[in-house]
Design goal:
alpha+beta
């Protein structure tokens, strides 16, 4: 059995921004290439290959701490969780679209939806602000580093 596991992070969302494609378009080309090389391409290869390749991708969505005046702690946590959920789901949907494009380009049958993937598992988990990089951010750049998605990619074959 061969197995490879990698993880990487894409950060830089603005406050309450959740669209992964918009973020992706602003990322350095080296990180864009990494996302394609380590997530999109292996997943598309697993989905279009009849060789028993598999790919599992977990995407964690993160938010910065909400400091909006007048909100209760529960409202703040709910807002953080909502934003991190939307970030992870947007990244998952973007990833599925990229996988589908590569499968189609390879002459394969494109799955109707994420649930129809045969050899690829795409999962998300929202983290809210539970895993801040900067506990007390002192700049907008530090807040943007807290607002991120993390990809954990495992590829394997029997």
């Amino acid at each position: 059995m061969t197995k490879e596991t990698v993880d990487f992070t894409a950060d830089g969302y603005g406050d309450h921004e959740t669209d992964f494609k918009t973020l992706f378009d602003t990322l350095p080309s080296s990180l864009q290439n990494l996302i394609f090389d380590q997530a999109v391409t292996p997943a598309a290869s697993a989905e279009s290959a009849a060789t028993g390749q598999f790919c599992a991708i977990v995407i964690l969505g993160h938010s910065d701490r909400v400091d909006t005046a007048g909100l209760t702690p529960e409202q703040r946590r709910a807002d953080e969780l909502t934003v991190s959920t939307k970030r992870a789901e947007s990244a998952k949907n973007w990833l599925f679209d990229q996988i589908a494009e590569l499968v189609l380009a390879a002459g394969g049958v494109v799955p109707a939806d994420i649930a129809s993937l045969q050899n690829v598992s795409l999962r998300t988990a929202p983290c809210g602000s539970a895993n801040l990089i900067h506990l007390t951010p002192s700049s907008p750049a530090e807040r943007a580093e807290n607002r991120r998605v993390q990809f954990f990619v495992s590829t394997f074959s029997p």
